[in-house]
Amino acid sequence: SAATFPDDQLPLEPQVTPGWAVSGTILTITGIIYALVGVRGKRLQTFFSTAFLAALGTTVLILYLMTPPVSHAVQGAFVIAAVCTGAALGGLALLFRDLTECLGCALGGFCLSMWLLTLRPGGLVGPDQSTGGKIVFIAAFTCAGLCLYFSRWTRTHGLVAGISFAGSTAAILGIDCFSRAGLREFWAYIWAVNGALFPEGVDSYPLTRGIRVELA
């Protein structure tokens, strides 16, 4: 097996680039709006729920396909791709609000699963577990959040909790783009979609003080 990467060289030192600055600003502003106002307006909630999920899916695909290092210009193109995809699908979702309103609960469940996974160095589902275990963990919480929508007894409370948690998560990730604590890199480590993103030999990821503050 690969040797453990030296602990004093982790976490990776994030850089504040133009792409990250734009991403951080967008995430912080939209996250706060979504968390505080989303549940009061169905159109706003539907748009942002779909947009965040679409941008998230685009980001995972980009991470899977990219080959580091990436220039600032390419980073900007990635940001445009994620934002435009989110905005386009968010706008399209407004035409089908009866079908897409439930995505607020699903997004909240996903964000809760990621919060739990980042509570332990290396991830709550540790390196000794298969990637499939992480997928099942995330899928289970996402589906559990989605299920809250389908009962009139839990729908309102599920939307309030899901939207608030998802919005605050987006805002914190936006802040992380400037604080350089490394939470977004921790997310990428947990997803394990591209081994080239981290140096060879990395089999864990530290939970630094900055990350703990952002999680709190």
TrEMBL record:
It holds the Pfam family TM7S3_TM198. Keywords: Membrane, Transmembrane, Transmembrane helix. It is a multi-pass membrane protein. The keyword Ligase does not apply. It is found in: Membrane. The chain crosses the membrane at residues 20-39, 46-67, 73-95, 102-119, 131-151, 158-175. It comes from the Eukaryota. Residues 24-216 form the TM7S3/TM198-like domain. Signal peptide: none annotated. GO terms for cellular component: membrane. InterPro entries: TM7S3/TM198-like_dom. PANTHER family: CHROMOSOME 1, WHOLE GENOME SHOTGUN SEQUENCE, DUF4203 DOMAIN-CONTAINING PROTEIN. This is TM7S3/TM198-like domain-containing protein.
